[in-house]
């Protein structure tokens, strides 16, 4: 039996998520080549919307939800919905949840991600708290320093 390309995407995503969760059970992000730093951050010095997501999973798996939330608040808020949708797709493939997403929801989601990305890179209190780890003081002081 051949799987349709969308089935490969669903199963591959679910397997990838399970694999990442298994890896962060044993390895701490930033200490191994298996969990490299964000290439966008290394290239630009700016946080992408996914920056801190691996550390978020690490802290969640190890029972520290507040620390997880501080790494990537948007990913933490979206994680239950993503897991629910993946499980639903794997258990009941006929449901095809992603094909029923309206254009308005997609636009709203993209706008939220864009606003989150901009806000977490601003060096102003309280928006700088959205940066991974909530590293606000150093970023605000760096922005206020001349030169």
Overview of the structural elements:
This protein has 147 residues and is mostly helical. It has one domain (5-144). Helices cover 61% and strands 0% of the residues. It has 7 helices and no strands. The chain has helices spanning 5-26, 39-44, 53-61, 65-71, 73-91, 103-120, 137-144. Helix 1 (5-26) packs across helix 3 (53-61) and helix 1 crosses helix 5.
Entry keywords:
147 residues; mainly alpha; 61% helix; globular
What's the order of the H and E elements?
HHHHHHH
> What is the 3D form?
globular
User: How far do the termini sit from each other?
Assistant: 64 Å
Mean pLDDT: 81
- Give the domain tally: 1
Secondary-structure map with pairings?
Elements: H1 5-26, H2 39-44, H3 53-61, H4 65-71, H5 73-91, H6 103-120, H7 137-144
Helix pairs in contact: 1-3, 1-5, 3-4, 4-5
Short description:
The protein is mostly helical and 147 residues long. The chain has helices spanning 5-26, 39-44, 53-61, 65-71, 73-91, 103-120, 137-144. Residues 143-147 have low confidence and may be disordered.
């Amino acid at each position: 039996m051949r799987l349709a390309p969308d089935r490969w995407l669903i199963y591959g995503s679910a397997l990838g998520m399970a694999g990442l969760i298994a890896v962060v059970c044993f390895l701490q992000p930033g200490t191994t080549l298996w969990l490299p730093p964000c290439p966008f951050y290394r290239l630009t010095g700016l946080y992408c919307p996914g920056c801190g997501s691996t550390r978020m999973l690490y802290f969640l798996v190890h029972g520290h939800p507040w620390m997880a939330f501080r790494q990537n608040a948007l990913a933490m808020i979206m994680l239950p919905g993503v897991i629910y949708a993946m499980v639903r797709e794997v258990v009941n493939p006929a449901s095809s949840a992603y094909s029923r997403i309206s254009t308005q929801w997609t636009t709203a989601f993209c706008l939220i991600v864009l606003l989150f990305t901009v806000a977490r890179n601003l060096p102003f209190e309280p928006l700088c708290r959205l940066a991974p780890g909530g590293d606000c003081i150093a970023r605000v002081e760096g922005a206020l320093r001349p030169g």
